[in-house]
Model the fold of this input.
Amino acid sequence: MKASIVTIGDEILIGQIIDTNSAYIAKQLDELGFKVIESISISDDEQAIENMLQRYQDTVDLVIITGGLGPTKDDVTKKTLCKFFNDTLVEDQIVLKHVTYLLEEFYNRPISEINKQQALVPSRCQVLFNKVGTAPGMILQNNKTFFVSLPGVPFEMKYIIENELKPWVLTHFDSFYNVHQTIITQGVGESLLAERIATWESNLPNTIKLAYLPSPGMVKLRLSSSGKNKQNIEQSIANQVSMLALIIGDCIISYDEQLPLPNQIYLLLKSKKQTIALAESCTGGKLATCFTEIPGISYVFKGSIVTYATDTKVTMLGVSQDTILQESVVSAAVAMEMASQAKNKFQTDYAIASTGNAGPSKGDSDAEVGTVYIGIATPTGTFSEKFTFGTPREKVIKSAVNKALELLYKELIKIND
Done:
């Protein structure tokens, strides 16, 4: 089963807003067993919409379109759909009643003629009721292709997909399954990882596809397969993951993409009734954000001190001025003192510290741009490691955050083992 995704709106094409609809729709289609072959954004223009409809006619099974369903003159999707399908607009009484109710009950004003246009739909379409907005969804079929037009407002689009479109799809298409397994690795670069698993990768069944998804300090390996027997697919992938673990088990940190490393650290600390604090310099609070996004994190996370300037490391955190003068502010010694002071000040079991030159200039240290020291304070001692992350600045910071989390995770696993 093939599908395409189309977002309509000049505001997307000029970069005024970010298209988040496509990502959500792609995930829903994948869960429904479709293979998304293309995702595009087009102008809110009759010719552009008509060209898109002609392009996908009989080439895919399902096209989901969002946007262009407002009541104003610049929204031309319904008009173009009628032209393409040789249809006419008619007033849907259920939609009209709903629009009237929303305006009179929630906005305390009578319905206008322009608002009534929201109830106009192609006569041959199947209406997808929009309980949370005024623009309904619509399904139109031409030969083998179904075209689904949805409002562009994200929460309205999501409501219709979840409550109206999914049940419809399940009754109109055969059951098909896409299964993915993501293995998250840290500490090994993409090319080295590929070398280590080359033989295993060459022997993968042709029904399973491997994808490398690198990011600073981390590489995700995604195994994907599709078919009608979900249990067989899952077992086939599980067999391959077991073999992979024997080869690169030392750098695998998770088999669950839905449980990021900060969440795993949280669960480990909570299970041991232990706590953590942070002292950040070059990461500027990014580490703290990783933790504070987790519900319930207050059980283990006591706080963070961001001592970005050199003098605040001394006055706020208590790092020795002599250490900074002798070793440099970007050094192993300073990273260790920062971690130790954070652990003491917050009275925690663990602490992480970061100090480095993220760029573009060197700042108060002669260390090269991209140099970062991560300090880890544990119940049994304190240590630091040096890393060189290169440029640009954003990559250095992201890499430092990921590496700090990795070092702490390995310590927690070591203790738990």
Remarks:
- The chain has a mean pLDDT of 94.
- The chain has three domains: 2-172, 178-254, 261-416.
- Residues 154 and 240 are 38 Å apart (CA to CA).
